[in-house]
Amino acid sequence: MTEIAYRLPQRRQLVTALPGPRSQALAARRKAAVAAGVGSSVPVYAADADGGVIVDVDGNALIDLGSGIAVTGVGASNPAVAAAVAEQAARFTHTCFMVTPYEGYVRVAEELAALTPGAHAKRSVLFNSGAEAVENAVKIARLATGRSAVVAFDHAYHGRTNLTMALTAKSMPYKANFGPFAPEIYRMPMSYPFRDEPGLTGEQAARRAISRIETQLGAQTVAALVIEPIQGEGGFVVPAPGFLATLSEWAAAQGIVFIADEVQTGFARTGAWFACEHEGVVPDLITLAKGIAGGMPLAAVTGRADLLDAVHPGGLGGTYGSNPVACAAALATIDQMRELDLCGRARAIEAAVLPRLRDLAAETGVIGDVRGRGAMLAIELVREGGEPDADLAKAVAAEAFSRGVVLLTCGSFGNVIRLLPPLVIGDDLLAEGIDVLGESLRAAVG
Ligand SMILES: Cc1ncc(COP(=O)(O)O)c(CNCCCC(=O)O)c1O
Questions:
Q1: Which Pfam families does the protein's record reference (predicted)?
Q2: Same topology for domains 21-64+341-445 and 81-340, yes or no?
Q3: Which of 42, 156, 360, 410 lies 20 to 30 Å (CA to CA) from residue 145?
Q4: Alpha helices, H only, 234-316
């Protein structure tokens, strides 16, 4: 694998209490200026970041196992991405593609057509955020099918806009008191092997959902089925083999648009360009964001040309969608993913980390499930009887942070510790991060 040259020392180093004085001062200023509704996982403020390290404003170097929620796979200051951003910004930062178009958009769309699953004719439309992409994928499916019902799944997360909140399962903090929500959204049971009845196969779980759709809605009323191939915020739920393929085949037979939401799973994160590939599923539409542009805000709906071209001229767009600087970042990011073989690196991360998580499970007895693919891995923490232990997950993340590791939790029950390291993280630093996870788990369990 290509050697990576880092700009910052790839080491964990704490030089003040956490948070240090500068972070504390920033926290006070934030309180007076930033909405209280915006949360942060850690109480320190970033000053620099490179590879697997985030340096805070007090000089503390932390191991990053979050990648800004699965975004900085190529690193938070990848030199090729930074150069592409600077070069484009020096030429023009914006003309609005709906006014004066530019090549960057076209090149990104060409890349997405080539990279996403399926050899069929594809089109893309670019946006700024994952939620915007999901919103528009549903718009396209409804227009193309003339139907209005949309199916989402238990534990799903699709965004914070009104429609994507309706698609998202967990109320607090994403939906509570923000309703009423968009109509015609229907929630079906997910394949959640750890919490399903033992032995339920992926196909059986899919048939369970299909039966409810047919009984409660009627397949012919359904425009789209929206699903994350591996659920992210809902707990890194990897459906049983066959679940996605059974749903996809059934949807095709019913004229239902199969939308794979790969905002969190896309762009090498799971060890393939897209997680659908692991299950041999070719989605009709795929929504993309996060890892696409090395940290610059860009999102996309890519998929069947007949669906996307069904929309009337002017029916899709937005002022900033496909910002040219973000497009330049995306092109550089995709090149870096190829050059550094980040799909291979994600698979290597899985091979190095999953066995260690399983050892931790055997040692501690508080890990009910170890799961994930590539560099999207998780442990689900439980009490004696298997009930979710969100308090323990919180305590582990806090303990890890106190030791200089940024670790994220997730899950419908808040009891999942997730690992999302930058795909460019070095082996030694990653191993140290997992050491700290183990130390933190032991300390939290007591
Ligand atoms: C599958 C999937 N679809 C859609 C989205 C939404 O993407 P945006 O770019 O945050 O709008 C996500 C964003 N996930 C992180 C949200 C963090 C938070 O807001 O608390 C996702 O994971």
A1: Aminotran_3 (PF00202)
A2: no
A3: 156
A4: 243-254, 305-308
Cα 195 from Cα 236, distance rounded (Å): 13
Q: Using one digit for the tens of pLDDT, what is the confidence trace for 136-160?
A: 999 999 999 999 999 999 999 999 9
CB 289 less than 6 A from any atom of ligand 1 = yes
Q: Judge if pTM exceeds 0.90.
A: yes
Quick one: average pLDDT of 312-317? 97
Residue 255: Cβ-neighbour burial (10 angstroms; 0-12, 13-18, 19+): middle
d(CA 176, CA 172): 5
What is the homologous superfamily of the domain 21-64+341-445 according to CATH?
Answer: Aspartate Aminotransferase, domain 1 (3.90.1150.10)
Model confidence pLDDT, tens digit, residues 363-389: 999 999 999 999 999 999 999 989 999
For residues 268 and 423, give the distance between their C-alpha atoms in angstroms, rounded to a whole number.
Answer: 8
Ligand 1 pocket, 175 CB below 6 A?
A: no
Indicate the top mutation candidate among 127, 136, 233 to test ligand 1's pocket, ranked by most ligand atoms within 8 A of CB: 233
Distance 164 CA to ligand 1 centre (A): 10
Q: Number of H helices and number of E strands within the chain?
A: 13, 15
Pick the closest to residue 53 from 2, 106, 85, 12 (CA basis): 12
For the four alpha carbons of 1, 5, 438 and 228, in that order, the dihedral sign comes to negative
* Contact predicate 191/153, CB 8 Å: no
Question: Rounded to the nearest whole angstrom, what is the distance from the C-alpha of residue 3 to the centroid of ligand 1?
Answer: 31
pLDDT (0 to 100) of residue 1 = 66
81-340: in CATH 3.40.640.10: yes
What does the angle CA 373 – CA 356 – CA 352 come to, to the nearest 5 degrees?
Answer: 55
Q: What is the pLDDT of residue 113?
A: 98
Helix, strand and coil percent figures for the chain, each rounded to 5: 40, 15, 45
CA dist., res. 439 & res. 399, Å (int): 9
Q: Residues 6 or more apart from 91 whose CB is under 8 A from it?
A: none
322 phi-psi bin (left φ>0, alpha ψ -120 to 50, beta other): left
CA 69-154-226 angle, to 5 degrees, is 75
pLDDT digits (tens, 9 = 90+) for 271-296: 999 999 999 999 999 999 999 999 99
For residue 89, the surrounding DSSP H or E stretch is helix 79-91
384-436 pLDDT, tens digit each: 989 999 999 999 999 999 999 999 999 999 999 999 999 999 999 999 999 99
